[in-house]
Amino acid sequence: MSPHILSAAGVALVLDGPGPGLPRVLHFGAGLGPVAGSALEPVLASLTPAPPLLPAQGDGWYGRPGLSGGRAGEHWPVRWSLDRLDVTATPGAGGTVTVAASDARAGLALESELAMDARGLVTMRHTVTNTAASPYRLEGLTCSLPVPPRAGELLDFTGRWAMEKAPQRRAFGFGVWSRESRRGRTGHDGTGLLVAGTEGFGFRSGEVWGVHAGWSGNHLHHAERLPEGPALLAAGELLEPGEVVLAQGESYRTPRVFFTWSGGGLDQASGRLHDHLRAQGPLPVRPVTLNNWEATYFDHGLDRLLELAERAAAAGIERFVLDDGWFRHRRDDRAGLGDWYVDEGVWPDGLHPLADRVRKLGMQFGLWFEPEMVNPDSDLAREHPDWILGQAERLPPPQRNQQVLDVARPQAYAYLLERLDTLVGEYALDYIKWDHNRDIAEPVHDGAPGVHAQTEAAYRLIDELRRRHPGLEIESCSSGGARVDYGILARTDRVWTSDSNDALDRQAIQRWTGLLVPPERLGCHVGAPKDHGSGRRLPLAFRAATALFGHMGVEWDLTSASEAELQELATWIALHKRLRPVLHAGRVVRADHPDPSALLHGVVTPGRGVFAFVQLTTRLTTGPGPLRLPGLDPAATYDVRVAGPLPEGAGLPGWTAAPVRLPGSVLGELGLPAPTLRPASALVIEVERA
Question: Which residues sit opposite 211 in a β-bridge?
Fold first, then answer.
């Protein structure tokens, strides 16, 4: 049978014809043009044999199996027989593949779904069903696609609290490179994206393949190459022993796994992922947000908060979010978590005096919750100790003075839904900051490992709350960026990128988190003049220019700001609002700038573009290299101007004094003369098609 071809946006995926076993992906990469599958047969026969959709030893694959599990007292390696292969393909617009297979002796049935969207992004998921009378203990089920021998380097990410998404690169040699998270959430060290590429690939050059598991619990991403030649990228949920045991007729479905390819560097691969999120539906205009956490912490004096709200509105801020500390017994982080009732001692009239004033000032009102957690020192924990996720006689070690609430327990789920639903309704909340501030350790739910059930229950809770309140926006915060994945982003509107508001650190954190998440979903706030975490002092212009390229907000006690600072902040907020149509809809571009002490990045649409030249540290060279603006149409002509306040102490070339008009070919190849900037400063550049 002739191979099947899915193609879109310069990407092709070639699947072999029906055979006795599971189909194999023979090619995933560059588009092949208008070619029929039959014409490929002589060429494909010479390629390195690819493993099937679920690699196994019976198929000649001696690496990690795609499916692992077993039954007590018997072991039958699975050899799938193909029952059905349905392919629907529209040349240039992608298509879908559905595979049904079974192994009667092993007592299993499989359904695999593979799809390519119109932007060339591939998604995959598997469903396995136990068809035998005895229970089947599932140990692992991953989705994988092959990569060719020329993919010789790997890029992935690690990190910690307040320093997420640190890149690390290595050769793609023989064996397995596996990134695994057992933290019960995505994790500060979660890679997010595992990339294989040709040697020396960058943002604008090289061929790259990437994989992402859209799951917020334990997960894995791995790359593997065998000496026989095949190599692949794989991802899926990481299951603990006994976590998923299938009785006869029961099924397990993997999370969706996303595969992206680019022939022009990381930016193009990233753009396919961004387009997927944007295709979920248009977001409303992203309001500039003030969060009071670093302004007041647990000090919830009404007069102080009202003054903060007044100053926020005067600066042009559009949403006010009241963070931790508004509920019963919550005067610090040691008590009250889980008692989701407004603290009558602090708020005798409820939150209405603040919420009403915020709205009269023209701002939306939002509230912080951490539904999946509980303090042992709380009414909830004292009344329902059995609701804590773990073994009652030996609870997990506390972190941040808190334990995890077993959301998969129906009574706990019902309590949370009632409390959240009531508070959202009473205060007509526009926004929830949904936090998750600790790793999940030793999770035991009904005598079995509990992360899978916990993650699904949290998803159901968010989904039901949004069903009841369709206009509600939700932010995924997890002590910063520890829950950033396409599972949570399928049901929330943005992520809190990091608990670090240090703009120097944020430049890297936002840059790399932005491979997976488009700017309008990245929470990026202007912090205080002296950062609360690092203690570093940075100028307002640099802090604001850093926050400009995301969902902009403020995390600063504006009651302590001078009038000059407030006016400068208002100028930056006004600039962000003017540029939002570009920043929140355009294609993110990142130059492979030759100077390691500086960054050049931007966002472009067909008609406009916004760029930032960022000087991070002191240059080694005597003069900066030219600013070659990526992503512009070389055939178009653009007006180029400086946007926003000029950085202090900068040596500025002539073009910054008045707009200049240049072809896109010149801006992209020769570039602009670069300014000489002090460390920790940035110049924002705006271009518009003439």
Answer: 194, 259
